Amino acid sequence: MMENVIELQHVYKAFKGFELKDLSISVKKGFVTGFIGGNGAGKSTTIKLIMNLLKPDSGTISIFGMDYKKNEKEIKQRIGFVFDSNIFYENITLAEMKKIIKPAYRKWDDTLFNQYIDMFELPLKKNLKTFSKGMKMKASLTIALSHHAELIIMDEPTSGLDPIIRSELLNILHNLMQNGERTILFSTHITTDLDRIADYITFIHNGQHIFTKEYYKIEEEFAIVKGGTNLLDRDTEQEFIGIHKTNHGFRALTANKQRTKNIFGDTVIIEKPTLEDIMLYTKKGEERC
Amino acid sequence: MQVIISNQSKEPIYRQIYAQIKKQILTNELKPGESLPSMRQLAKDLNISVITTKRAYEELENDGFIYSIVGKGSFVCEQNNEMILERKMKVIEEQLLSAIQNSKEVGIELEELKELLTLLYKEDT
Amino acid sequence: MLNLIRKDMILQKKTLPFMLLFLFVYLFVNVSTSWVAIVFCIVIIMNAFQTDETSSANLLLNSLPYTRKEIVSSKYIGALIFIFLTLLTIFIGNWMIHREIMQWEILLFITSIVMGLISFAFPFSYLFNSKYLLIGFGGVFVVYMVTLSFIPNLNDRVRELVQTVLSLDNSLFYLGIILSVGLLYVLSWILSIRIYSRKVF
User: Fold this and answer.
1) How many domains, in total, are found in chain B?
2) Domain HTH gntR-type, which positions (chain B) (predicted)?
């Protein structure tokens, strides 16, 4: 009975030199989904499709079970967004920015807004132009969180921020998730941020959906395998998504930890993979083909 | 309730949580009927994702250590000690059986096996 | 949608009063009122247009609960409000300084010219970018100034032409102007919505 807040079905979108191919992704209600993929994998494009900033060439996109053609305003009322770049007007203050955005939302909450302003120690009367990158992200987050959004979409919110601010952000996200009604989609290439917060990981590569899994399942299924190159032959290489060979041995990624264990037994070392490993070896595997 | 998790451990985090809560229930540190923190609260406190605590709670529930009431939270089950013991004994039996089979395959005698068992038992404590 | 127009007012808050004051002062320097009014209207309207032309502003507006139709429409309705404000300032200014009530024909003339220009400028800017438009306008202005130095009484001639047009005592003629400018404006409006809906940010 798990409800999907975002559902993309067979979405296709082509640009010059880039395409999203048959993308089907769903984001579950009440959880944090970490959205990963290298530069140019299609993360931002997918997020723009979800925000209706782009329209798909074919396929359907439904948010809260609704369709942008009929319910654009209704959907956007319930979304809070944070982009990696500053999207606020630069020559005004945060107080003025609030004045501009507030009337757009039915559920705008000034008390909540002021709480975040206090918590982040943001100046209301200073020009937004003078804000540091961290302050801009906090301002963006404040606006995104002040209208009781049910879905929070963040495109690379932590890029270029120091570890302290990133940690603060993750704490806030933990707090937001307490009532179980909120859903967060969080794209990033700093994958360590996801260790602490992501329930699901959605991985796309070259415009294609590779997988969406519970975070702990990744550890159960994937593994980094290390061993001597003499173990590799045409058959055993098939076991791996990507292999990195050196004169001293190999390192490889498997998507079937148990089977790999059965095949190689104690001849190899098997370790927990990081998300970065998965991204890296998926790319490597592709180059090999 | 104390839960300390290690990110370095080979054991998955949800298994660590499962094991620690289970131990506290079996040792009666967590009393029957006592409420556990909500899985979202625990996730926040441990700084891990909700799905991890959810999985740990689900397994605790499946194994009969806790029960959940929608909208109220999770509570420690009334423990039937005999049942637990019985369940445990069965597991031990199975494990010993497979150890015996393995021993037979390579021709280890009963005496030798007993010696090994004694040695390991003492070592662990 | 009214929020979007209000947003333009807030963003122009610093420049708008200054501009209107400047306009007021300009009236002392007895140049052609119509000419000044037209330039001011265009500058104010295009200034508001430009602030929303950056990709970040488009990202923001389209992520907020507004439709693209509303975003475009707010610019067209906002332009009419800016015209009204400018004309009001001129009207009051003229009355205070020169103690004369402006002819409604002149007001109509200014409005028509500005609406006509906007009808071309908006779709053009949505399609390309207003910076090319400004280059174009600048070019026309330079050409005009150069021509002025060759034909010294060009301004007078234009004024004469305008006067003849205005003195045409034919209400049907005015009605025709109102209708055709209105139609042009609406068509441009629809065209702009079409163009903007297909934009990629």
Assistant:
1) 2
2) 11-79
Judgement on whether residues B46 and B101 belong to the same structural domain of the protein: no
User: Residue A165 sits in which domain range?
Assistant: 4-217
pLDDT tens-digit series, residues C85-114 = 888 888 888 888 777 777 787 888 889 989
pLDDT per residue as tens digits for the range A211-225: 999 998 998 899 999
Q: Note whether residue B4 is domain-resident.
A: no
Chain A, window 67-106: residues with a beta carbon less than 8 angstroms from a chain C beta carbon? 72-74, 76-77, 79, 81, 83, 85-89, 91-92, 96, 99-101, 103-105
Q: Under a CB-based contact definition with an 8 Å cutoff, are residues C70 and C1 in contact?
A: yes
Residues A138 and A272 both lie in one domain: no
Asked if A48 reaches chain C (Cβ–Cβ under 8 Å), the answer is: yes
Mean pLDDT for the stretch of residues C51-70: 90
The residues pairing with A242 across neighbouring beta strands, listed in sequence order, are A253
Q: Mark whether B64 and B94 lie in a shared domain.
A: no
Q: Are residues B90 and B70 both part of a single domain?
A: no
> Which chain A residues touch C200 with a CB distance below 8 Å?
54
CB contact under 8 A, C65 and A73: yes
Q: Do both B22 and B69 map to the same domain?
A: yes
- Which candidate, B68, B53, B70, B69, places its Cα nearest to that of B18? B53
User: What is the residue range of B66's domain?
Assistant: 13-76
pTM for this prediction = 0.81
Given a cut of 80, whether residue C137 has pLDDT beyond it is no
A272 and B CB contact within 8 Å? yes
- Which two three-digit tokens encode residue A156? 């690379």
Please check whether residues A66 and A200 belong to one and the same domain.
Answer: yes
Touching, B vs A (3+ Cβ pairs under 8 A)? yes
pLDDT of residue C13: 78
H and E: helices and strands count for chain B: 5, 3
The CATH number of whichever domain residue A131 belongs to comes to: 3.40.50.300
How many of the other CB atoms lie within 10 Å of CB of B3? 16
Q: Which residues of A touch C62 (CB under 8 A)?
A: 51-53
Q: Evaluate whether B39 touches B54 at the Cβ level (below 8 Å).
A: yes
* Predicted local distance difference test score (pLDDT) of residue C172: 74
B40/A178 Cβ within 8 A? yes
Tell me which chains share at least 3 CB pairs under 8 Å with chain B: A
* 3-state secondary structure (DSSP) of residue B71: coil
Co-location of A213 and A262 in the same domain: no
Residues A204 and A228 in one domain: no
Rg (CA), chain A: 21
Q: Where are the beta strands (DSSP E) in B1-125?
A: 35-36, 66-69, 73-76
A192 and A231 fall within a common domain: no
Q: Which chain B residue's Cα is nearest to A167?
A: B47
Whether A100 and A186 share a structural domain: yes
